[in-house]
């Protein structure tokens, strides 16, 4: 059984039918990427999995339980954590306060402390800036903070929405190598990206989304080599 199984979901914003019958699955241990143009429905799909939006129809099974329509904070408790598009860190709070908020579902103080050290191990730049207000961090540091905050809930499945957005190439490579590392240490990853080249280079499998529908899916390396995908998403 797949860790996450999204079955034929339909999602609306009022009268706008944003997701038109999407099905996808993520196996434990995988990195799966969802690629597609602006407005295709990538963020909507992630926000539905994390409970910020409710599907009108369809099921979302996570570790055998249907979580569709469950409130977002309960879904965090089930083991899914999302790093939203645009990071959404708490600008008026310090780096440490942001990370502590990521552990809101937990009350195991000693373990939380250990996980803080784990996050600082992955992101040494955050440790140097522990008392700095998050709003004054650089774009790359804010992305690291958003990822660190998500890791503080000890997710089994990490949802990442465009972690490369607005970052310089060198920093994108750094963030992607951290994603690979997080995955290697036991966290399953569902990654949404417009940077399809980078996403396909680290993913096991991929889904291509077009105006609310999945149009292609398969092995990431095979998709990266496919002419259709190259033309539409990889700059030829
Ligand atoms: N809050 C909202 N209200 C109404 N329509 C919305 C809302 N959010 C998104 N949409 C619409 O739903 C569709 C899918 O949007 P979504 O944000 O999921 O796309 P995306 O693939 O993440 O795009 P991008 O790459 O630009 O982030 C778009 O047509 C968008 O205009
Ligand atoms: Mg988006």
Description of the molecule:
The protein has 236 residues and is an alpha/beta fold. It has a single domain, classed as P-loop containing nucleotide triphosphate hydrolases (Rossmann fold). The chain is built from 10 helices and 10 strands. It is globular.
Describe what is shown at a glance.
The chain has 236 residues and is of the alpha/beta class. It has helices at residues 42-49, 72-78, 95-102, 109-122, 124-128, 139-151, 169-184, 196-202, 220-225, 227-233, and strands spanning 4-13, 16-26, 31-35, 57-62, 65-66, 80-83, 157-161, 188-193, 205-210, 213-219.
Task: Please indicate the percent range of residues in DSSP E strands (runs of 2 or more).
Answer: 25-35%
Count of distinct structural domains: 1
Mean residue pLDDT:
94
User: Any idea what the radius of gyration is?
Assistant: 17 Å
The beta-strand count equals: 10
Topology:
Blueprint: E1 4-13, E2 16-26, E3 31-35, H1 42-49, E4 57-62, E5 65-66, H2 72-78, E6 80-83, H3 95-102, H4 109-122, H5 124-128, H6 139-151, E7 157-161, H7 169-184, E8 188-193, H8 196-202, E9 205-210, E10 213-219, H9 220-225, H10 227-233
Parallel strand pairs: 3-8, 3-9, 6-7, 7-8
Antiparallel strand pairs: 1-2, 1-4, 4-5, 9-10
Helix pairs in contact: 3-6
This protein binds adenosine-5'-triphosphate (ATP) and magnesium ion (MG).
């Amino acid at each position: 059984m797949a860790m996450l199984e999204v079955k034929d979901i339909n999602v609306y914003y009022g009268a706008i039918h944003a997701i038109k019958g999407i099905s996808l699955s993520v196996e434990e241990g995988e990195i799966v990427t969802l690629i597609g143009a602006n407005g295709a429905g990538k963020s909507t799909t992630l926000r539905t999995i994390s409970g910020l939006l409710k599907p009108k129809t369809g099921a979302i099974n996570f570790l055998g339980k249907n979580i569709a329509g469950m409130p977002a904070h309960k879904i965090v408790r089930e083991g899914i954590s999302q790093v939203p598009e645009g990071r959404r860190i708490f600008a008026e709070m310090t780096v440490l306060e942001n990370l502590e908020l990521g552990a809101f579902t937990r009350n195991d103080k000693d373990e939380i402390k250990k996980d803080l050290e784990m996050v600082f191990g992955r992101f040494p730049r955050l440790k140097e800036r522990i008392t700095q207000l998050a709003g004054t961090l650089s774009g790359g540091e804010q992305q690291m903070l958003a990822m660190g905050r998500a890791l503080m809930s000890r997710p089994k499945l990490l949802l990442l929405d465009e972690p490369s957005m607005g970052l310089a190439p060198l920093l994108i490579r750094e963030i992607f190598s951290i994603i690979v590392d997080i995955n290697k240490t036991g966290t399953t990853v569902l990654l949404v990206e417009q940077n399809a080249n980078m996403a396909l280079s680290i993913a096991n499998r991929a889904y291509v989304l077009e105006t609310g529908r999945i149009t292609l899916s398969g092995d990431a390396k095979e998709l990266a080599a496919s002419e259709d995908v190259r033309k539409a998403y990889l700059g030829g």
